[in-house]
Design a protein that fits this description.
This protein has about 120 residues and is mainly β. It has a single domain, classed as Jelly Rolls (Sandwich), CATH 2.60.120. The protein is built from one helix and eight strands; from the N terminus they run ββββαββββ. It has one helix spanning about 35-40, and strands at about 5-10, 10-15, 30, 35, 45-65, 75-80, 90-100, 105-120. Strands 1, 2, 3, 4, 5, 6, 7 and 8 form an eight-stranded antiparallel beta sheet that branches.
């Protein structure tokens, strides 16, 4: 079986524009959506999400969608939140997420400092 590695969030440094983050005081943004395992296999599956952050302050929510082409925020729902506290976090953590998701994305809320090295989706 072929493995897919997809970028949910690229390198993002607080205060520096990158990807969908404009570097301003707007601390909430979403990464680009990626096709999840059920998009291709039409069945439930396990995806791994790798978080790699340094001194990160905020929340990264992994969201899934069952829609064929989600374009509205209402078509997404939270499936995992990283980290689970409000302290500055430096970590490389992989979590398994099981579900029938056609699409997945990462959203960031309360981004107040640090670096997101990457958030990757693998299946």
């Amino acid at each position: 079986m072929k493995t897919e590695d997809l970028v949910l969030l690229p390198l993002t440094i607080y205060g520096t524009p990158s990807g969908n983050y404009d570097g301003s005081s707007d601390t909430d943004f979403a990464g680009d959506r990626q096709k999840a395992v059920a998009y291709y296999r039409r069945a439930s599956g396990t995806q791994s999400v790798l978080f790699d952050v340094n001194d990160f302050i905020g929340d990264i929510k992994i969201q899934g969608s069952l829609d064929a082409d989600p374009t509205q925020n209402a078509e997404w729902f939270d499936v995992y939140t990283f980290p689970d506290d409000s302290a500055a976090t430096s970590a490389t953590v992989s979590v398994a997420i099981t579900g029938n998701f056609a699409w997945m994305r990462a959203t960031v809320t309360g981004f107040l400092g640090g670096t997101i090295n990457s958030v990757l989706l693998t299946y």
